[in-house]
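Re: [ENG-882] Designed sequences occasionally contain unexpected residues at chain ends

Forwarding the minimal case from QA. Structure tokens:
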């Protein structure tokens, strides 16, 4: 409607300008007749029906037919120095109501200034009722066409979204491998569907990891429980065959294993939840020295601890990480465990541009094959060679150590070594 109003206003201005030119031209033709002496009364009216010729005394000497006998239509005269003026007047002596476009022209005749008036009714605001109806109908039709076209375009554009929505509503825990369709040609919907599929893949991987974790945890918890149950049932069936001290010692071993598994599961649950640890300024060498003094080892321990290697992290978590590495090294070492702390700076290392604080724990055991170095950091993973010498291991120590390292902003890897296993912890320096 606003566009129609602008269009109607523009039409009216053009028609008004054209009508003003016609009124002025009609007065000019009368002026030429006056100068040639061919002026007649009544004046011949073409498209302009209201014209008057006044002499120097402002007496009407000629007029169009419908202005015969009428006084001058207006007192309008050109300003000094001008021979022509145009104005819209509403208080004239012209017949009819409303305002008129009036042109006053002065002509020098017989040694005097004569005045010629020509006038026409002002263009109505709405020009013509038919034009208004036409514009209104055109506006309604235009709006209807645009609305329908927009609806078709939007509907067609949103069809992929509806398809994605319908597919997502059908995906549940029983069908985690389903994916939403991806359009062939690249556009916004192609990118949206790809992002949704990537998200579904990550969710499926997380769900499968949780299922494996629950299954492995159940298996590891069931083993000591089954063992303790068998011992209790045997004692009940054969009271005299087993002493209380022997059975108690055996049950305590199983309880220790259960306690270790539950403690590790609680630690993993906290790490998975992303609970932030404290931000302590820790001297890594001093932390290792204190832990080594407080532990009793069955193997020889060699220390190479540098002073002033500072990191920022949770002191308790870092102590737990070190303890897990030492437990693993002591179980698999032949005769000796080596612990090193030092500062390292490698130019061009994007992971540690400011250098790294390094902790190494090495043993002189049989080591781990290169193709299984990443496998030991998976939860509940216990290599066949390790199971025999590690009856009380839970398979969670190294995964917990790596999670603590990553939560502190560092890395824990199994690096190559001449003999045995070499675990390397790198943390950002304070």
């Amino acid at each position: 409607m606003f566009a129609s109003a602008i269009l109607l206003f523009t039409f009216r201005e053009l028609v008004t300008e054209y009508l003003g030119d016609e009124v002025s031209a009609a007065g000019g033709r009368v002026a030429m007749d006056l100068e040639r002496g061919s002026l007649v009364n009544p004046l011949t009216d073409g498209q302009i029906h209201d014209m008057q010729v006044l002499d120097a005394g402002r007496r009407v000497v000629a007029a169009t037919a419908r202005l015969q006998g009428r006084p001058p239509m207006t007192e309008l005269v050109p300003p000094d120095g001008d021979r022509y003026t145009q104005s819209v007047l509403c208080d004239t002596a012209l017949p009819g109501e409303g305002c008129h476009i009036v042109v006053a022209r002065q002509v020098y005749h017989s040694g005097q200034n004569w005045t010629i008036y020509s006038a026409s009714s002002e263009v109505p605001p709405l020009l013509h009722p038919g034009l208004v109806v036409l514009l209104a109908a055109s506006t309604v039709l235009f709006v209807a066409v645009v609305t329908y076209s927009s609806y078709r375009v939007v509907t067609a554009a949103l069809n992929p979204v509806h398809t994605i929505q319908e597919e997502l509503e059908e995906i549940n825990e029983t069908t985690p491998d389903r994916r939403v369709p991806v359009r062939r040609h690249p556009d916004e919907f192609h990118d949206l569907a790809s992002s949704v599929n990537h998200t579904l893949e990550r969710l499926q991987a997380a769900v499968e990891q949780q299922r494996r974790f629950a299954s492995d945890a159940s298996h590891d918890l069931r083993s000591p429980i089954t063992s303790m149950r068998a011992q209790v049932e045997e004692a009940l069936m054969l009271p005299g065959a087993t002493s209380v001290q022997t059975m108690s010692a055996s049950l305590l071993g199983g309880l220790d294993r259960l306690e270790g598994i539950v403690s590790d599961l609680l630690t993993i649950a906290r790490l998975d939840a992303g609970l932030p640890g404290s931000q302590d300024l820790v001297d890594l060498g001093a932390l290792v020295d204190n832990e080594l003094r407080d532990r009793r080892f069955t193997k020889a321990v060699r220390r190479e601890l540098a002073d002033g290697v500072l990191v920022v992290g949770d002191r308790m978590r870092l102590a737990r990480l070190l303890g897990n590495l030492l437990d693993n090294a002591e179980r698999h070492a032949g005769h000796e465990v080596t612990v090193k702390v030092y500062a390292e700076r490698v130019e061009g290392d994007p992971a540690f541009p400011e250098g790294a604080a390094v902790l190494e724990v090495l043993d002189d055991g049989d080591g781990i094959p290169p193709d299984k170095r990443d496998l030991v950091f998976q939860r509940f993973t216990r290599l066949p060679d390790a199971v025999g010498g590690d009856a009380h291991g839970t398979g969670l120590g190294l995964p917990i150590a790596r999670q603590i390292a990553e939560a502190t902003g560092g890395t824990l890897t199994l690096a190559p070594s001449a003999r045995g296993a070499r675990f390397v912890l790198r943390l950002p320096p304070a």
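QA comment: On inspection the terminal residues look reasonable. The first strand starts at residue 50 and ends at 54. Proposing we downgrade this to a documentation issue.
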